[in-house]
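Exercise 3.2. Students should predict the tertiary structure of the chain below and write it as structure tokens, then compare their answer with the key that follows.

Predict this chain's 3D structure.
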Amino acid sequence: MEQVEKAITRCRKCPRLVDWRERVAREKRAAYLDWDYWGRPVPGFGDPEARVYVLGLAPAAHGGNRTGRVFTGDRSGDWLFASMYRTGFANQPTSVSRDDGLELTGAWVAAAVRCAPPANKPLPAERDNCLPYAARELELMPNVRVILCLGSFGWDAACRLLKLRPKPKFGHGAECCPEGGPTLLGCYHPSQQNTFTGVLTQEMMDSVFMRAREIASL
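Answer key:
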């Protein structure tokens, strides 16, 4: 897994993403002027013996691209790790930096695209360049029984990883159980667009993680 992490953090396959992530790291946001931005691809994080693999979209420009840890330092991560804490996957409800003491048990968190994309919208070719990293992580984690997909982008990426045709329909709480593979479990993405409007509530997110525990027999 250390070799996979090195390969991810050194990746420069997508010129548009390289330019954007490094520009953000140089220019910074006013609130984070004293931060030394990560400005590189962000590797996965968690328990190597995980039974639940959480797959998101991409690092936030001033979240994971700043802190160097997936879903760390942004509002989506606040929701995600708080839910994982309430459902027994995390030892604390917050995630602000790589050295804040957060530990995951039974779960691994990653993104379909490992670089922060402009407008949070990766191109299909950028997704396809990145998916082999998730595939390699999954190869190294044979205990994974559930891929919990955050949003339709994560769901589509997981369907590509597992070569599912026709693609099953995404929805909150949707499940797909391919023969011989991990179960796909859908969850609305904990973006502010969803959490501020009530499209996704704490109870809804917790119920999906509890379902993941049930499927994975944790």
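Discussion points: The helical segments are 2-9, 15-27, 64-67, 75-86, 124-139, 151-161, 192-195, 202-216. The chain has one domain: 2-216.
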